[in-house]
Amino acid sequence: MTEKIPSKRGIYLLPSVLTTFGMFAGFYSIISSINGEFTIAAISIMIAMMWDT
């Protein structure tokens, strides 16, 4: 008889979620810099760098 090997779908979702968080942080950085909040924009870029490494 053949045994079914359980699939590992959840592990493939994690990199996509982390990249999405990084993209959101980058977008928030752009919006913050347009509004003149440069400190928050810089922090958002740092967060995006951490999520995308």
Quaternary form: single chain
Shape: rod-shaped
Strand content: under 5%
The span between the termini is 43 Å
Task: Write up this protein.
With 53 residues, the chain is mainly α. It has one domain (13-51). Helices cover 75% and strands 0% of the residues. It is built from 2 helices and no strands. It has helices spanning 9-34, 38-51. Helix 1 (9-34) packs antiparallel against helix 2 (38-51). The longest helix is centred in the middle third of the chain and has 26 residues, at 9-34. 6% of the residues are buried. The model has no long low-confidence stretch (mean pLDDT 86).
Task: Explain briefly what this protein structure is.
This protein is mostly helical.
List the defining traits of the structure above:
53 residues; mainly alpha; 2 helices
Give the topology.
Blueprint: H1 9-34, H2 38-51
Helix pairs in contact: 1-2
